[in-house]
Structure prediction request, 424 residues.
Amino acid sequence: MKVLIVGGGGREHAIVYKVAQSPKVEKIYCAPGNAGISELAECVPIGAMEFDRLADFAEEKKIDLTVVGMDDPLIGGIVDVFEARGLRVFGPRKNAAIIEGSKAFSKELMKKYGIPTAAYETFTDPDKALAYLETAKMPIVLKASGPALGKGVLICQNLEEAKAGVREIMVERHFGDSGNEMVIEEFLTGREVSVLSFVDGKTIRIMSSAQDHKRAKDGDQGLNTGGMGNFSPSPFYTDEVDKFCREHVYQKTVDAMAAEGRPFKGVIFFGLILTPDGPKVLEYNCRFGDPEAQVVLPRMKNDIIDVFNACIDGTLDQVKLEFIDDACVTVILASDGYPVKYEKGFPIRGLEKFKGKKGYYVFHSGTKFDADGNVVTNGGRVLGVTALGKTLQEARANAYAATEWIDFQNKYMRHDIGKSIDEA
Ligand code: AMP
Ligand code: GLY
Prediction:
């Protein structure tokens, strides 16, 4: 069969790598893809938001299955466009992708169906939000309701900061239209865990857990980023946490979406926080995480095509997901200055060292070929250096050793990815 993957980051590289392992697949296309992806797939210069051009391409090439990796096209309704043209596609429709597209929606859903989450209020009027803050407990969390690349969240320590935050989001509109509506919520403390799942509208199957490191600098300092590295499984995701979430979070979310007339098919990513009062949902995403996909998919034993098909056909109840016991760690090699300001276009050396090395992967996030055919940096997050190991400590040592194989100007990474696991 022929498969088209939509997106061009490390997550899509991990999806392409996993799809390429399926004996059912004879040809993979990726739009737009990147330099690393082009080793496994034919990259097509069509942007992820060009729905009609992508659907034209899928028709012309007789694509059997399209898999959408990225959030923006899903939130924008790419799946509806493909389905209307009779094209087979993996991912939630627009009316279900809203679970990530609107924080106001997802908070309301959790409240209505009793899914544990931080207490909150929603505002469309900045004056009402400012008045509410006067009596609220600090610290407090402000969130632009719409999508903001993981950056529309402000944690404010005191009233002054919180008032300034409301003005940034709703008046100065630092996150554009995403700030038309705002959620103000209780500040929670605890360890964060990412849980990815496959959903077919009614059945949910949980993948292995992962833990992200969102801040740019060591010791969880610096600005929030898309993710600077992660590991799987998370030792903090205990059997007890799993049991609680199966009872109070996962199936309840799937049933709530179905009851709302928004059946969800695709990947739900649960951003959990393990508070002293038990696990709570910080956020939902409607797609694989990046870099979570880079640590979870190399551990997955199933043929992913079978799982995609089961989600589309509503037969996920017949699928058992299996993962190898090995742990996996990804360290992101970024361009110095990310997530604010950074330079691009520097040649990357050492990529060939990963060839044929079992248990080591280099997933490309922001790379491209220059005019001479050299692989050069082309983004804030450049590469996801990934390694397996018998234990998390071993996987971490392997991944950090492999970061040394790669060299490019302004190479930047965190040195403490997975370090917190020593405390588990
Ligand atoms: P979100 O996009 O909602 O996951 O928020 C991004 C990050 O902000 C999360 O991964 C947390 O680190 C932090 N965060 C979000 N909501 C809260 C909260 N209610 N309490 C504490 N930290 C939060
Ligand atoms: N790594 C977090 C995300 O993909 O949203």
About this structure: The chain has a mean pLDDT of 96. Residues 202 and 254 are 6 Å apart (CA to CA). The first strand starts at residue 2 and ends at 7.
